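Hi team,

As requested, here is the filled-out complex form for the adenosine monophosphate run. I kept the field names the same as last time so the parser does not choke. Let me know if anything looks off before we queue the next batch.

— J.
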Amino acid sequence: MLNIIIFGPPGAGKGTQSEFIKEKYNLTYISTGQILRNEMAAETEIGLKVKEIISQGGLASDEIVAEIIEKFIASHADANGFLFDGYPRTVKQAEILDELFRKYNLSLSGVLSLEVPEDILVERMLERGKTSGRADDNIDSIRHRFVEYDQKTKPVLDFYQNKNALYPIHGVGTIEEIFNNICEVIERL
Ligand code: AMP
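And here is what came back:
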């Protein structure tokens, strides 16, 4: 059973590559960002709570996303394996995920970390912003997302490096080339 985390800075291509990974390896996919966007669109209690912070490029609270993740895992007990996109984004979230793995008898196969230089990331997100309709794909929010990433999310890399679970992936090239880089790593897990 494969349980994979796809990791990387904003705009690294996590969502794009996840589409291919989940198909090829028959994984149950969860994107906390997508779930939060759905909550915002439906104007649920959670959605209303996170709307402002997300549109400004900040992170939702660890408690809110932990609740989303646990609900999802608990309701997909028959999954063949999970693909986590955009979670964990803080060390606290990584610790919570560890506990959830223990509770639900899952084991982590690896963390695939997409590596892309910042100028390319900005370019990709501004391009995406033309059609994505995402409130956070504008230059001010993008800048803030990088600050959040550097301060809160990057330390997650050390957390998994210390567990020997971190696999860096060259994240520049065509979608197909990057997917091939990812598959080479997954085949070794
Ligand atoms: P994403 O679609 O993964 O780029 O996420 C979009 C936005 O949703 C992020 O910039 C955060 O504001 C919020 N978000 C998604 N996942 C998380 C998470 N694990 N923890 C906190 N905030 C999150």
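Two things worth flagging: The first helix runs from residue 14 to 25. The radius of gyration is 16 Å.

Thanks,
J.
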